[in-house]
From TrEMBL:
Domain ABC transporter: 2-249
Swiss-Prot/TrEMBL keywords: ATP-binding, Nucleotide-binding, Transport
Origin organism lineage: Bacteria, Bacillati, Actinomycetota, Actinomycetes, Propionibacteriales
A Pfam family recorded for this sequence: ABC_tran
Protein name: ABC transporter ATP-binding protein
Assigned GO CC terms: plasma membrane
Source organism of this protein record: Nocardioides pocheonensis
Length: 249
């Protein structure tokens, strides 16, 4: 269970998050929606540890994450695919995923590219893990291609594979479908649904409300940094406050 307890974060005079609380049980797919600037990305960064809250707490299975830097939270099972995340364009598809695996196991990029012989066995295990993650997102055939050569939809699936290489318990996806064509969007929706069906707890921020309502067990709606609704897709999409603030009357 991921517990977000009254987190607040301000930038200057703007409250990006104000007393945001959320409980996400294991196995849930939670949608997070709201207008631009509502605080969705800020919330994800607070959970993954890339921002520190002014107040409030985030915990996983009752263990507070607040004092942990991002790579330690990753080791405890929190993975994030950032909004507009970039790949390493000069690396192959497989190498991009291996960086994700190393981020958890051996302290990041330097360890991922410098390979002393003593680490060969670890290296092979990392490679095998990366290959499994690529297969999971349907990109095993592209393993040796340069990452930059992939179409955008496959690049997004590669981002997901890289996050999976950290073997997370909770996966945060921030607008993974933005800019994708309809077919790519359908493929990504199917992938997210399959990962959740396999047991992955997922928090999904998406601008495409149809995608979120088709996937999510529950949806939390943010507006101006505050939770204005929390419920099933049917409940939040018929909530008058949500319609006024976001969905448009
Ligand atoms: P969303 O992801 O819902 O579009 P964000 O979390 O990115 O919203 O932003 C919430 C608010 O916080 C916005 O008003 C935004 O301008 C502000 N904000 C976010 N990050 C920063 C930052 N690093 N510095 C200053 N203001 C920020
Ligand atoms: Mg955002």
């Amino acid at each position: 269970m991921l517990t977000i307890d009254r987190v607040s974060k301000h930038f200057g005079g703007v409250y990006a998050n104000r007393d945001v609380s959320m409980e996400v049980p294991d196995g849930e797919l939670r949608g997070v929606i709201g207008p631009n600037g509502a605080g969705k990305s800020t919330l994800f960064n607070l959970v993954a540890g890339h921002l520190r809250p002014d107040s409030g707490s985030v915990s996983l299975d009752g263990r507070p994450l607040d004092r942990m830097p991002p790579h330690v939270r990753a080791r405890h099972g929190v993975a994030i695919v950032f909004q507009g995340a970039r790949l390493f364009p000069g690396m192959t598809v497989l190498e991009n995923v291996m960086v994700g695996a190393h981020a958890r196991t051996h302290g990041g990029l330097v360890a991922a590219v410098v390979r002393p012989p003593s680490q060969r066995r670890q290296e092979r295990e990392t490679r095998e893990l990366a290959e499994r993650c690529l297969a999971r997102v349907g990109l095993e055939a592209a393993a040796q291609q340069p990452a930059a050569a992939l179409p955008l939809g496959q690049q997004r699936r590669l981002q997901v594979a890289r996050a999976l290489a950290g073997q997370p318990r909770v996966l945060l996806l921030d607008e993974p479908a933005s800019g994708l064509r309809a077919g790519e969007r359908t493929d990504l929706t199917d992938l997210v649904r399959e990962l959740n069906a396999d047991g992955m707890t997922i928090l999904l921020v998406e601008h495409d409300v149809g995608m979120v309502t088709s996937l999510a067990h529950r949806i939390t709606v943010l507006d101006l940094g505050e939770v204005i609704a929390d419920g099933t897709p049917a409940e939040v999409t018929t909530d008058p406050r949500v319609i006024t603030a976001y969905l448009g009357a």
